[in-house]
Amino acid sequence: MAAFRLQILIDYAQERSKTAAQELQRVRLRWAQEEQKKHQLEGYLEDYRRKYNGNGKIGMSVSAMMDFRRFITKLEMAIRTQSEEIVRCRQQWELAQRFWLESEREVKAYLALRKRHEQAEQVKENRQEQKMLDEFSQNSHRRHHAEQVAEKVAVQK
After folding, report:
1. Nearest by Cα to 18 from 97, 103, 114
2. CA 72 to CA 95: how far, in whole Å?
């Protein structure tokens, strides 16, 4: 069977697909970590709001109240920033996913070409084998016929 001349492209496409899958996994992990950070910040914010409300009922100094408010504002800003980072991570993941899907389609296309090549080569080999069998059969038939003629001639002598 003749070698598939595009095998190097299959190997390259498979390597690109593997790398793209690893990148997709890396980006998804980062996305999950960024979401976890946001959840932690939201938990801190909730805790500080509870403390602020609880201390407000029992009374606190103005400076302590302002410190609480400033810190709560900083947490709210951090949560907004973290939300923006999550959006960027999601966009990176979508881009990485498109690249991976494209590379997978490329691999499948090359594999389909290789399969067609192998099928065509198999058909060619089958034809050659059938041709050889036909020739062998014809030669065997001729030999057998020649032997029969030779026997009849020998018997007639």
Report:
1. 103
2. 35
Distances (CA, A) of 130 to 38, 85, 89, 139, 145: 71, 67, 61, 14, 22
Q: Which amino acid is at 124?
A: K
For the beta carbon of residue 41, count every other beta carbon within 10 angstroms. 19
Q: pTM above 0.90? A: no
Q: What structural domains does the chain harbor? A: 7-125 (1.10.287.1700)
Cβ contact 34:89 at 8 Å: yes
pLDDT digits (tens, 9 = 90+) for 3-22: 888 899 999 999 999 999 99
Q: In this structure, what DSSP letter does residue 60 have?
A: -
> ∠ CA(99), CA(110), CA(98), 5° rounding?
10
Are 20 and 93 in contact by the 8 Å Cβ rule? The answer is no
* Of residues 106, 3, 88, the one with CA closest to residue 38: 88
> Can you give the C-alpha Rg of the chain in angstroms?
39
